[in-house]
Amino acid sequence: MDPRLLKELNAARQARKAAVLVTSLEDGRSRLVVEGEAIGGDLGEEVTARLRSGKSGSVEIDGRPHFLNVYLPPPRIVVIGAVHISQALYPMARIAGFDLTIIDPRTAFATPERFAGGDLVAEWPEDALKARPLDGYTALAALTHDPKIDDYPIAMALKSGCFYVGALGSRKTHGKRVERLKAEGFGDGEIARISAPIGLDIGAATPGEIAVAILADIIQAFRRRELAREGAGG
Q1: Beta strands in the chain (DSSP E)
Q2: Closest listed residue to residue 33, CA positions, set 152, 25, 207, 49
Q3: What PANTHER family does the record tag this protein with (predicted)?
Q4: Closest CA to 184 of 161, 204, 155
Q5: Residues of the chain by 3-state class (helix, strand, coil), percent to 5
Q6: Measured CA angle at 174 (ends 168, 179), to 5 deg
Q7: What per-residue confidence (pLDDT) applies to 233?
Q8: pLDDT at 82
Q9: Going from the N-terminus, what domains does the chain have, and what CATH number goes with each?
Q10: Is the pLDDT of residue 130 over 80?
Q11: Given this model, what pLDDT does residue 19 score?
Q12: How big is the CA angle at 25 (ends 24 and 30), to the nearest 5 degrees?
């Protein structure tokens, strides 16, 4: 790869931005398209589709063969709450290709014994998220049912453009959450991004079933996510 393109690609990776290396199969020339860059025509449509699918491959653009190499930041899930649902979600997420971090300041719940080999952070979200900020390739699942623990990461997820924000709780519980978020200055459009009650509506009842519903909701949101626009921050 051209050293200049490699430097650009490494910079995109460092910033957790997606990129597509577009190479002509006729003359070998390449260009790097970083998510958010305005590209029109057939190339723009193909790049958008590849960024959503994450799949590299060959394609004909304007009658000429090209190969598109897709580089996506590793998608991750940040779970607030070391609860039974989190125990079920952790191995499922790994199988589906997501990194998963569990944050819970309650040391009685956040124990290595309950999450063997898991990325477990026994700190308040306010502290944990300073070290590892949320971003557009992160899904946030708030599962503690405790506003003192859940509200801050939910607010940060909305501000950070997380591709998924979900929160456990009944509609009544979410109604109170909405009131608190509005008091913090969030608008209806921002709050509407929260999946609450969390997960796809499949009639889930057990922790394992709820974990399946959450993971399916996250995957759906990831594959249908709105891509960054030219000039957007993040």
Answers
A1: 19-24, 30-34, 57-61, 64-71, 76-80, 99-103, 119-121, 138-142, 164-167, 194-195
A2: 49
A3: ALDEHYDE OXIDOREDUCTASE MOLYBDENUM COFACTOR ASSEMBLY PROTEIN, MOLYBDENUM COFACTOR INSERTION CHAPERONE PAOD
A4: 155
A5: 40, 20, 40
A6: 140
A7: 42
A8: 96
A9: 3-71 (no CATH), 76-223 (3.40.50.720)
A10: yes
A11: 94
A12: 30
